[in-house]
Amino acid sequence: MVPCNYRAQDDEESWVEVPRTLGCLLQSSLQSNMLGPWCSPTGSPAPLSCETGCGEGTWILVCRLLVPTQVSLLSMEEDIDTRKINNSFLRDHSYATEADIISTVEFNHTGELLATGDKGGRVVIFQREQESKNQVHRRGEYNVYSTFQSHEPEFDYLKSLEIEEKINKIRWLPQQNAAYFLLSTNDKTVKLWKVSERDKRPEGYNLKDEEGRLRDPATITTLRVPVLRPMDLMVEATPRRVFANAHTYHINSISVNSDYETYMSADDLRINLWNFEITNQSFNIVDIKPANMEELTEVITAAEFHPHHCNTFVYSSSKGTIRLCDMRASALCDRHTKFFEEPEDPSNRSFFSEIISSISDVKFSHSGRCIMTRDYLTVKVWDLNMENRPVETYQVHDYLRSKLCSLYENDCIFDKFECVWNGSDSVIMTGSYNNFFRMFDRNTKRDVTLEASRENSKPRAILKPRKVCVGGKRRKDEISVDSLDFSKKILHTAWHPSENIIAVAATNNLYIFQDKVN
Amino acid sequence: MAGVAGPATGSGAAGGDGDDSLYPIAVLIDELRNEDVQLRLNSIKKLSTIALALGVERTRTELLPFLTDTIYDEDEVLLALAEQLGNFTGLVGGPDFAHCLLPPLESLATVEETVVRDKAVESLRQISQEHTPVALEAHFVPLVKRLASGDWFTSRTSACGLFSVCYPRASIAVKGEIRQYFRSLCSDDTPMVRRAAASKLGEFAKVLELDSVKSEIVPLFTNLASDEQDSVRLLAVEACVSIAQLLSQDDIEALVMPTLRQAAEDKSWRVRYMVADKFSELQKAVGPKITLNDLIPAFQNLLKDCEAEVRAAAAHKVKELCENLPMEGRETMIMNQILPYIKELVSDTNQHVKSALASVIMGLSTILGKENTIEHLLPLFLAQLKDECPEVRLNIISNLDCVNEVIGIRQLSQSLLPAIVELAEDAKWRVRLAIIEYMPLLAGQLGVEFFDEKLNSLCMAWLVDHVYAIREAATNNLMKLVQKFGTEWAQNTIVPKVLVMANDPNYLHRMTTLFCINALSEACGQEITTKQMLPIVLKMAGDQVANVRFNVAKSLQKIGPILDTDALQEEVKPVLQKLGQDEDMDVKYFAQEAISGTKRPSGSSGFQGGSRDSPV
User: Fold this and answer.
1) Is B449 part of the contact surface with chain A (CB cutoff 8 Å)?
2) Burial of residue B320 (number of CB atoms within 10 Å: 0-12, 13-18, 19+)
3) A309 at the B interface (CB within 8 A)?
4) For B60-92, what is each residue's pLDDT tens digit?
5) Chain B contact for A38, CB < 8 A?
6) Which of residues 154-183 of B touch A (CB under 8 A)?
7) pTM summary value
């Protein structure tokens, strides 16, 4: 069924200079205003309880995986020990280049595979170690399964724009046959990849012998049909579809619908709906572009489909609001069905209020009853049936409230942190600075700060909870706010769909932790 | 083996001991694994040749096992393979061995690419007919069961299409099992499979016993129609048509209508869209009585649905719905129950709705007759001819022939003309292009006089449009007009105006003259071409713009066959030879093309021209 009047996107707009995010807009407006010295109000710091344990127990490092660079692709046969050597080799030479920085992490639906995308346009897929799966202490071990170049840098000659190869998002499709399928996207183009195994190859030619030498045709007296012989397992990645030319702005999200037939892609101002089979047509379902770009006040920052209801999706905006749309109601979803917004607390109002309230990630819970949003300082959980305020609010790093000015100056305030649920929706994880990441247990209301760093990257080391000191007195095991390293940020994390195994991307390192079972 | 001559050419086979008839086959077999997709594809397309050479025994034991495992290939190769295997029964030893084809098709039925899977299912359906009833139960039914209980949903979706072909020929016990498998697929976990089952529900219902339809299919249908995914529910609407066809009026009322009523008011616009889209089929399937009681009110609701997509789909069906109403009382019913809604749609807010209506509304005039058309429809036509959206106006104009039959076009011509003129001058060139394409049709209906008076100037104006596509279409339009109105008309009205443009200061317009001559020469015949057009073309050979000159060469090549030999030899040839010495490379090239081009047909065309000349 193809509805007839999908909205054509006007192509004249290509000459309008488009701000990448609202953040940039605000940034430029500030520069023009040249505000005086800035005093930030100190928000009431939330109590940071650092009692151990989040979810079921303490966390240990299982393995640290470097996304293999072009120089050293880790082959499948290498055992864990040699990989460690490789890792330390890479570490010692501090090998990370800009292209190796991980830009997205995603488990597939069974958790058997874990995909990462990086700024160099590569996708690396890790597979769970089959043998160690049943050994409690090693069940979170993953090895490289396949590596391929998903996107290449491009140049749009019509708009004189460079298109980065950086992978913005990866989404796995539900498995439909023996092969695996995933969508990967950069700023403009979504691609559907098939990752499949091959363990047989044909043998026997009529006109050539085994070494490839040509046979004299005169000697052919019988016909040979090739036979298939087993060979070493080969994993191939092939591009199946390329969904291009539908986005004028930068794609920030892709989400697969539960009907297994469609997916959506969202950019700063529009959301398009695609059918997996059709690459030359997409339907524009949301368009918030004002007729006059100067009237632009908000942009779309993330969008996701409901996990079970194929007609429902949400998108978040830079103003800290979330809209829920029902595709049953009408073909164009410019009018939302629900609008989630928390009234602003006037006492916390500051120049940065609008920037820090911008939502960087939105995720439905697995049950589909809640949505979680991440803004700069907090994670909020919303009940789908309550639009006027979140049911839970967690402070991720409230101690930064006093540092917003310097975070603004070094652009960190525009960092887009993601957030994830655990398999049973009882724990929330999100990243912070200084290679710290945070977990919040929704039932016990306990939270923990952990660190993914090289210093404690000894396998099976128990992660020590970290504490950031907020007052004047610093205790021995605490770290002062002023000594936090803002260049080490954890933006992308993933949680295994059913087990307590997490993947945390810290620049070019992928750490895999599992909870410690005694 | 006669058919395989292809790549054997010589290649040293002569004098050897080998059987040289084997060589081409050997090449084909080796190319099954060539790096080049095109060569693999060619080889797959000649699979029957390979099988014939191998013989039935080796085809079964060697070729088919090999093919079963080659599912890694490109989609187009797999598609060709799936298609080939559907006609392979004879090559594996006839119906007794048809089951040997099942393994490769089974693996093709699980690939992710829908077209390949569908083709594999189609071939499986074909092969199922060649199975004996015994073989069907021994081999085919187990295959269907395997697919239906496969781990991956690709295999289960493929299974959905196979139930209906094996059911009629299976034994009672197996029939029960097949129904059981189908039932479980209808409530599969994945929407993909439920969709496949829903889309095959009608087809499966047709081969079932009536009792089973009522006791089993109807509950499945009701379930699918209330599925949580609207993509499944909308497919149930289609099944509704097939199921209703099988049932008596009372059963339809009791078993199908509740679901259909619910679908027509579904929360999801996509489901309502589907009801609107399938309305004519539904109308035929449920019969006139239910149509009057239930469908007409439902249709009225669809015509004023809140979603424009639904209104547009319903508007598309207005004419068919009216046509299919029972003759008795049709007119009153349309006048009272449908027309009021149509009147509102004419001023709908959505242009797609209006243009959908405009594409069918003219068809109502034949159904309603002259008086009603003049009194009720004509005002609507006139309103739509003035619509702000060009697509609406175009749709009205493109369907003028329906009205012409009933009330004659004169009634409309007063409003028609401004509408045409406005479209002809629309700022969007695609709109202009669309109206040009209707010109020959309009000219036929309005007649020469009206055309000369009002439209001729438009047609000439298009020749100097600033968009090439319009100039090109205008040229073709002239040709069609000449075909309609005859050469005399052409000579008096068209040709002089075209030829004047040869002196235009703009070289693009001068070239348009040449393009017109290319198009018109054949329709105008030898006399006009030689006497009026040729001198102008020859004169233009001295044009200062090279583009014009090489188009002269092209034109001469084009009109050469129409000219007589004398003119060719005495006038055309010297000019072409001169152009052949032109300083511009392209002019030289096309002149030489023309010389060699006119030479070959010149002999025959000379005679032809002569013979054509005599009867004139």
Assistant:
1) no
2) middle
3) yes
4) 999 999 998 877 788 899 999 999 999 999 999
5) no
6) 154-155
7) 0.79
